[in-house]
Amino acid sequence: MFSIADNIKTVSQRIQNATKSAARPADSVTLLAVSKTKPAEAIRAAYDAGLRDFGENYLQEAQDKIAQLSNLAITWHFIGPLQSNKTRPVAELFQWVHTLDREKIARRLSEQRPEGTPPLNVCIQVNINDESSKSGVTPGEIAPLAEIVSALPGLRLRGLMCIPDPSQGDEALASTFKELNRHFAALQSRFDSVDTLSMGMSDDMEAAIAAGSTIVRIGSAIFGARN
């Protein structure tokens, strides 16, 4: 039976192979461990194996784990849908939000970011395949929201995030990732703070890295199937 540390080595090798194939630096992709539904002990094991970035989808669950692991130097990423009545604890406890898709949420996060802490790093979520079941802005809405975010003192615009339609074939998936990269490049040309393209999960990280991803969000390949 493989351990979490063994799984991290395997995933790290996959990332290294993918960056090499794409002629990119080995350190150009951050491994974000998606720890939703997993206990604090599993996160601690991944931390002991060298990981520092962890992603959570569910606020109540995340709050408990953040409290339990407060002695560790973890960078916490919120990667789930965010309702306006849940923004305060996210603004207070997390360093990143990957799922920003509304002006109202942006303004609340900025206003509720504690004084004296660095701005909250945010990625705008793009509904790149126009799926009714998923959150995110349309490609045409990226620029207007980015303008708003860049002007808010409590936020730092870092880039874009997507969750592509998993039913696509390999060619369509690669095309989807390349499309988001084009929007990312356009955003980079306008905002100096933009450096992050959050795309790719356990089953498609290689295609995402080939298309320029800088953060891959990996859950099952590290921690096993969801509980």
UniProtKB/TrEMBL annotation:
<comment type="function">
    <text>Pyridoxal 5'-phosphate (PLP)-binding protein, which is involved in PLP homeostasis.</text>
</comment>
<comment type="similarity">
    <text>Belongs to the pyridoxal phosphate-binding protein YggS/PROSC family.</text>
</comment>
<dbReference type="InterPro" id="IPR029066">
    <property type="entry name" value="PLP-binding_barrel"/>
</dbReference>
<dbReference type="InterPro" id="IPR001608">
    <property type="entry name" value="Ala_racemase_N"/>
</dbReference>
<dbReference type="InterPro" id="IPR011078">
    <property type="entry name" value="PyrdxlP_homeostasis"/>
</dbReference>
<keyword id="KW-0663">Pyridoxal phosphate</keyword>
<dbReference type="GO" id="GO:0030170">
    <property type="term" value="F:pyridoxal phosphate binding"/>
</dbReference>
<dbReference type="Pfam" id="PF01168">
    <property type="entry name" value="Ala_racemase_N"/>
</dbReference>
<feature type="modified residue" description="N6-(pyridoxal phosphate)lysine">
    <location>
        <position position="36"/>
    </location>
</feature>
<protein>
    <recommendedName>
        <fullName>Pyridoxal phosphate homeostasis protein</fullName>
    </recommendedName>
</protein>
<feature type="domain" description="Alanine racemase N-terminal">
    <location>
        <begin position="16"/>
        <end position="226"/>
    </location>
</feature>
